[in-house]
Fold each of these.
Amino acid sequence: MAKKIGVYVCECGNNIADNVDIDRVIKALSPLRDVAVVEKYRLLCSEDGKEFLKQSIIDHELTHLVVAACSPKQHEHTFMSVCVAASLNPYLFQMANIREQCAWVTPDKEEATDKAIRQIAAAIARVAYNEALEKKDIDVYPDVLVIGGGITGIKATHVLASPDRKVYLVEKSSSLGGKVKGFDKLFTKMESGSALIEKELKNLREDENIEVFTDSEVEQILGFFGNFEVKVVKKATNEELNFNVGAVVLATGFDLMDPKGLPQYGYGKLDDVYTSLEFEEMNVPGGSTGGKILLKNGNPPKSVAIIHCVGREDKGYCSKVCCMYSLKSARMLKAQLPGVKVSQLYSDLCIPGKAYQKFYEETKGLGVEFIRADKTNVTQNGKGITVKYESKSGPKGDLAADMVILVPAMEPSSDTNKFAEMLSIPIDNEGFLAQEHQKLAPVASSVEGVFVVGCAQGPKNISESIVQSEAAAGKILSTLVPGRKLELEVKTSEISETFCTGCKTCISVCPYSAISFDDFRKISVVNEALCHGCGVCAAACPSGAARVKNFAFTQIYQEVEALLK
Amino acid sequence: MENNGNSTSVLVIGAGIAGIEASLLLANSGAKVYLVEKASYFGGNVIKWEEVFPNMECATCMIAPKQQELLQNENIKLLTLSQVEAVQGSVGDFTAKVKKKARYVDLENCIGCNECFEPCPVEVDNEFEERLSKRKAIYIPCAGALPNAPVIDTDNCLRFKGEDCQLCQEACMFEAIDYTQQDEELELKVGAIVVATGFKTFDLTQTPQYGYKKLNNVYSIVEVERICASNGPTEGQIVLQNGEAPKSVAIIHCIGREEKGYCSSVCCMASIKQAHFLKNKLPAVKIAQLYSELCIPGRTYQKFYEEVKESGVDFIRATVNEVTQQGTGLAIKYKTEDGKENTLNVDMLILAPAIEPETDSSKLAEILAIPQDEHGFFSEKEPDLDSVDTSREGIFIAGCAQSPKDVPDTVAEAEATVGRILSLSR
């Protein structure tokens, strides 16, 4: 069928008309190939304008449409809707921005007119090669897999579960509760961590839409947003469970850096040098000391040094919560052993948040000493310990202590890499699971439908972790609606079977893991459900086999050629 | 798109980045959203910033696509120039009274061509630009503000002062200017409410020792954000009041921290960001940061700090006693931790003030019957655990209205309110 391209130039009141000689534009464009009609209109985005455009498409039996007006950011959507109303495929439409990119910025009217002609001619050249594309949608599973049974995973599970949405919570250890379960006290209210977990677990137990697998490993996750196939293995029985979910929440938490690698702290060599987690354990009523803070010799300590920022330099980041929980440790010491001397050796006090400074001041008021120290060295001195410290701006000195508590940097848990690989989620420079966008998409990953929450994506306190689990729930509940289909990106990439040489370059550059290799045909294949149409594969493909729909080389060449004519 | 019966309606108060994110997510779920914003534009504090830390992304470019998406979303009704006056009822069944002030410009007809500004004979300080530039009585606060339509400021417009001026109306080609528009009272039925009213900064005139508003070339960090902005009063040129570029700049952290009694959590990073920006624009400029404690939590922030430090920015741990005029420059007297006293001479001083709740927070707390903490921020139901629930079921808080925080934590809280709201209706 012969092409009939309609070209409509908007005057935008006087905004375009004042600075572009539209009659000259019309005269210049009318003879171009396949152009059936060129007309101007005072304001195409007005109700009258849209009706005029719709009627024109029908009357002239247009096969393609070009609108020369404002920025497509402003009205592309508007004119695509007009196409649909006139039964023209909306992807056979192209916009030329002759307002922001021409009339408003090119002061000379002659120059502006010449420029507008080129811009519109380029749109005409391009639109002739546009393809009619159709929106596709897929059915989805509303159910969700949550990996990691700490406070973050537990909260996500609780918020997500409902009669029309089942949630599977998988935990590799034998019980839920993560690190928080082992905290005797939580800052700032000094309430019990295990009591908090117990309260949350009660909520889970009462909800029949939740299935919990402890002592279990997620072995495989295949598929895409709306349709992931999950394989879980129960470690004790080797029983394999298979189910489908629409989304995955990764809440794999953190570990503390092992201070053994930092000999200056004497950890593992000197008695009575503990990590903060070991100190927590000492305070738990059911712990190895029955809740008593004791030295190896069975006596309570008379003086305790808490050393902040252990490993910060090596890690290259501040772990955010250590200052606060070191204050908490000081309070636990003072509560159990009122006469104990507590010294905090810190480099910078990081206590962000509206309620934290008060907690710090109260702790200081208990007689806790704060010593600025950028560098510390821990050595045995007879029966006690000497902590040598120095800082650039403060004093130097030696501090005697019976007990040293090291506050090591937080690092991603040991499982992080396994899941990053399984789900093709990038790991950031610090080893945590990367977010889709550091600021605007704090819980999404670059794989649609997979969310990264809590300390798995960076150090956080409990409330920030809970917020993140609720945030992932917000994202999931707003998109994965039971009974609603999921619309896919229309302008996806496709790889020509004829031209693909199987070099796999596209697979290595795709940021969404949307391309896989077909071993039988020896070619790369795009999964449309995963592709975002970013075009990286098309740019990287050495044989020209990969192309993004409606961003093909022909279209771009035609457009550029017309611009430069 | 099919919409399987999410009949929830939600009122979102405040159209900054938190309100925008919450509205978009809610609307995508099928909920009807009323987004109430007291200003004539939306985008909150973020649209005032040229770049955001730590990746120095252009803030407007970051948020504009979200704003466009919001304006095109049929489930969202954006009510600018509006304020909530009363709220009654309970979760699932709130009735909110909203007062919508007249814009005197028809949003349907106006195309944002700005032709109406030129003839307006009135010139007043532009509050959006921290009073560093002028605007007309009919105006858009800055280039690129959305919705792309001006507003008439009736306090300054001659016509509203009784004079017979209609120059703006005569200049408009689209009959968009309507002096007869009236304020409206709206009654909205909603199931839940999100409070995302954001923050303002500590009043620097309360700490006179730093010379703010008394000495030349002493700025707040917020003013410098506008000076750095390519759409701001100097179009991004960093200049002193005499028109020359500064050769030396000091940034003092934690102003008002002692008075407020809390760390505002983002100021260290914002100060480091400004140093980064200044160094980029003026490579030879000498910059000193005067700080007490460096609070740069988050896994990517330290790297940013180290990069800026390596670019030649001095970090001095000190308390500042006094700032005085010294010739054409400024003399900063400070004391380091080891007790030594020193003076630093600079051309320009930037003060990083504490973050406070928005002005109308107490009034809104009363209207919504939700508690505030001792600092005036809205209180969460369970401190240290759940920061988006308030003690009144169905009313949620997000962003700096709850406590000072950075953009990612703000966006996460906005998304969390959606998680909580959508799980309510099951």
Amino acid sequence: MKINLRVGLIIPDAEAATVKITLLRRLGYQGTLVDVRKERLFSIEVEDGEDPAQLAQKFAKELVNENKESYKASFNELKFEKGYIPVKVGLHIEDGEAISTRDRLRNRLGFKNVLGVEKATIWKLYLKGENQKGLARDIAEKLLINPHKDSYEILG
Amino acid sequence: MKIAVMQFPGTNCEYETLTAVKTVGMDGELFRWNRPAEELGSFDGFVIPGGFSYQDRVRAGAIAAKEPVMDALREEASKGRPIIGICNGFQILVESGLLPGTGKIDMALAQNVMIREGKIVRRGYYCDWINLRHDALPRRCSGSFLIDRDALLQMPIAHGEGNLVTADSSLIKKLNDEDQVVFRYCDDHGRTVDEFPVNVNGSTESIAAICNPEGNVLGMMPHPERAFFAWQMPSYDPRKHKPDAHGPGRQVFESMKRYIEVNA
């Protein structure tokens, strides 16, 4: 089973704001881009057995700083709200942070049922006009990824 | 001879770099990213210093690479003017397509991965003094114009993303064949060892610096401006205590000056 934690800031997100400003002012998306938001995604593969909702809460206690972040949990499938195009960006080379997170959860924090961790960034692109998925693809390739280390997926 | 030391939000080595530029006898001034980009045309050379432009948002160098001043630098590079990118400056040059020099993004400087005896022993940010071997011929590259092949230099590194990776399987061969690899991490004897701590960040073939095919654009992860004066050297280095000695990083700035004189 896979537990997905989508973690977003509840304080202003400077990185998302910088991406929005760069897309508007430098890359010509004035007529089509409305807003940009961002979430960190932890997809944690666990052995079946424990109640997934409770397990998600336990993981969130370790991975989410409630002073500045909130999270949404889903199980197996990633689910998104309407109104934006979610673009998932992750490394296609070895992801050291994901490996460290897996090892910390398993070896230091006692989650022996953790099989693997995948980390990614979800860019939530609020777009207007036609062919929004095409636009999202364009934005990913122009700014959000370096193809020599990152890959992306248009979700939703 | 006027050098623009570029300053983006988050750059933090601009004053040391400017001091190095001026000490070797060039004129220099800080050039803020939001100045009219066309003013760059009045300069003879450019240095993009280290730091964390735009706080490394999205990934190191990605946002600065989209600034209008980088379009102007692309134009200046095409005229043969020298550009040296140090650390974050190297990352910006890669993200803007100025290095390796095809105009598109041909490689990435990914997170450091330190490997010893087949095991990952450390990841991410690391700072230390390292040895560099100059692999290019003298006069091949603006920032190493005066440096002999196989010369050894000691400089500090301080970065989290300096691991050269590429999905283009032919790129490394091309860099080697065309003499675009300028510096490699090496041991005290000049030998490359593809293991931490000699290959300090896991970079492919221990590459620490590359130039474009024309040789006027150089990107390097180590900091020559932090090894410019002998007193900046680590305490175990005998040069530190010799008042007339120069630090090895000075050769990079002297090279740039000579490159401009020769190509004027």
